């Protein structure tokens, strides 16, 4: 069974891995954690980073980025 739980980092989905009358053990890892994933991608566009992206150290989407 999976459900959403509140954590100090916000909501997260957890999976119940075992339960008895006193204890419930949950796993907070993503369901694909530990699996080998292969992606088939196509690069559609390449552009230079904006000054804001360079100063922040990461890319921003077309609508900008809120910090």
Explain this structure:
The protein is mostly beta strands. The chain has one domain (2-56). 9% of the residues lie in helices and 30% in strands. The protein has one helix spanning 51-56, and strands at 2-7, 10-19, 24-27. A three-stranded antiparallel sheet has the order 1-2-3, with no helix packed on it. Strand 2 (10-19) and strand 3 (24-27) form a beta hairpin. The longest helix is centred in the C-terminal third of the chain and has 6 residues, at 51-56. The two termini are 34 Å apart. The model has no long low-confidence stretch (mean pLDDT 91).
Quick recap of the structure?
The chain is mainly β and 67 residues long.
Low-confidence stretches: none
Structural domain count: 1
Report the mean per-residue pLDDT as an integer: 91
Number of strands: 3
Read across the widest sheet, the strand sequence of neighbours is 1-2-3
Order of helices and strands: EEEH
What key phrases describe this protein's structure?
single chain, 67 residues, mainly beta, 3-stranded antiparallel β-sheet, 3 strands, elongated
Q: What are the SSEs and their pairings?
A:
Blueprint: E1 2-7, E2 10-19, E3 24-27, H1 51-56
Antiparallel strand pairs: 1-2, 2-3
């Amino acid at each position: 069974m999976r459900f959403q739980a509140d954590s100090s980092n916000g909501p997260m989905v957890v999976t119940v891995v075992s339960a008895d009358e006193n204890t419930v053990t949950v796993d907070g890892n993503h369901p694909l954690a530990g699996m080998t994933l292969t992606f088939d991608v196509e690069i559609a566009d390449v552009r230079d980073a904006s000054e804001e992206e360079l100063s922040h150290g990461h890319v921003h989407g077309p609508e900008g980025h809120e910090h």
